[in-house]
Every structure is written in C-alpha cells, then in structure tokens.
Backbone:
C-alpha cells in the first residue's frame, strides 16, 4: 500500500518560472542535492522531457528510477509516474502552480505517492516522504527565487 503526502508553499515567482525550473530536468543536480544525475531518455511530442531517468541518494544508498511525465492541456500542472525503479515499486506525483497576488507569486502544491520495494516501518516512511516534499519545495523556492533575483 502506498502512502500519500501533500504540501504547499508560496514562491515569489510566476507560475511559468516555477514550471520552467521543474521541467529543466537535466539541471536538477545543481539545486536538488539528493539528485546526482537526471537524464532525459525520451521526449514527448512537444520536445519536452517525457521519460527522465534519475540517480539519487535515498535512505543512505543510491537509487535509480525512471519517471514518465504528463503535461496535459493545463500548463500550470505537471504529473509523473514511475516506469522503472530499483527500491521503489510506485512513485507518482504532481506539481500544481496557482498564480496569486496578480500572478507575481505562485502557490505550489506538491503531491507525492510512494511505495517502497523494501520494508521499513510506516512512521519512518511517512517521515521520509514529509522530508522529501519539504526539501523539494524549499530547494525549488531557492532555485526559482535565485533565478528571479539574478
């Protein structure tokens, strides 16, 4: 059974700037410390990252997984689903970017559902998911606001 987690943050940037940072996959290692390598292995029909393979640090070890990204018709949302992974059976998520304050700021909502292939206590897993989301949103904020203020 997979656990679900959700968290929101406000970022001082437009939804498009947030979306651009999230879809710039190959630069994740510059601002997401747990991501060691991100490689686009397939593009969608609009030349955006479709399937992206990641090598990341997770729970004291290295993990490799490939996510398939879905853009849909709403440019303020991006979702993904794992298609391969070594320590995860399921990894699904979504970012939503809602313009606020006339569009100069963005409320970012991050949804995550994960199911590990290894057994760990539920409270440890929930703590890890919460940390993953919190750190991801904070790093996104630093990346986008750093780009905006440059």
Residues:
């Amino acid at each position: 059974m997979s656990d679900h987690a959700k968290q929101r943050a406000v970022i001082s940037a437009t939804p498009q700037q947030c979306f651009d940072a999230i879809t710039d996959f190959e630069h994740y290692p510059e601002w997401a410390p747990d991501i060691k390598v991100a490689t686009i292995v397939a593009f969608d029909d609009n030349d955006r990252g479709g399937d992206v393979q990641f090598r990341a640090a997770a729970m004291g070890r290295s993990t490799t997984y490939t996510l398939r990204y879905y853009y849909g018709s709403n440019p303020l949302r991006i979702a993904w689903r794992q298609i391969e992974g070594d320590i995860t059976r399921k990894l699904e998520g979504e970012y939503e970017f809602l313009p606020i304050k006339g569009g100069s700021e963005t409320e970012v909502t991050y949804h995550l559902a994960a199911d590990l292939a290894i057994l760990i206590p539920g409270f440890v897993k929930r703590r890890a998911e919460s940390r993953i989301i919190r750190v991801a949103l904070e790093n996104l904020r630093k990346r986008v606001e750093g780009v905006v203020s440059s």
User: Anything to note?
Assistant: The chain has a mean pLDDT of 87. Residues 122-149 form the longest helix (28 residues).
